[in-house]
Amino acid sequence: MELLKKLYKVYSPSGKERTMIKFIWNYTKRITGTKVETDAAGNLYITKGEAESYPCIVAHLDQVQRLHSKDFTTVETGEIIFGYSSRNKRQEGLGADDKNGIWIALKCLRKYDSLKLAFFVSEEVGCVGSGKAVMDFFNDCRFVIQPDRRGYQDIVTEIGWTSLCSPKFLQAAGYKKFGYRETHGMMTDVQELKERGLQVSCINLSCGYYEPHTDHEFTIKKDLMSCLSLVEHIIENCTDTYPHQTEILDGRWRSYDEFDEAVDEIFALLDQGELWSIEDLYYMYHSVFPKLDMEDYQRIYTEYYNLNKIEYGKQKL
């Protein structure tokens, strides 16, 4: 876990990813046979080996958390890793969303002879980097994997109204053997790439981080390792190219699902007992739930406190 801990210590808020870019650049140049390129937006593109087609992993470089003290350190206890400042006596977010994805990508870069990686800036503020990506980089990719989903069992095959991958790719991926289940997800870079014309199958995978976008964020190591194992399985077994044309799906019920998912996540955050304003919630989650506006956050906030008043009243009775 030493590489992972080093990544966690690099503070990379949206728009200020330079330190992370430098870290990855220096790490990558020590790996034989790799070529590193960048673009005007600051995205990184890495190619290892010579091949007719490549597996491809993407991740984003930025994080949401505003707290990152000079004495920030990682604490590893059993299966859990979290961030902590001794001087300030507080837990601080790891930026595991999406440093866990970066870690998986770099582990695979060490292991495989031919691979492509892309690391995007400013995903958390609206997929800015992938919106300016050099799309020709993906012309010889067989598929694109993004490990950028909280939890441990989701394989995202639809985002919003956009389908991401073909049934043939899903069958070849063998994800069920790793305890994963198919679901739909929220805005992230692979959706942006598909909407910009990417012609191969993409997925987004749960990679072991929890309570993202908060200072209580933590990683469960076995869940991260499970994601790495699935990614390695796909690289080793999905040796064909898996074309896929984006389909715009009926999204009427998905809007409700996104609100419902936001309720679950924000309620869990508020249950921790800290005081958050509606503006705080909007700042933390607007990139995760892009369909929701400030009125939706007001509604969730009000529903939470109304519900807790009811529960408090029941306890008194």
UniProtKB/TrEMBL annotation:
<protein>
    <recommendedName>
        <fullName>Acetyl-lysine deacetylase</fullName>
    </recommendedName>
</protein>
<dbReference type="InterPro" id="IPR051464">
    <property type="entry name" value="Peptidase_M42_aminopept"/>
</dbReference>
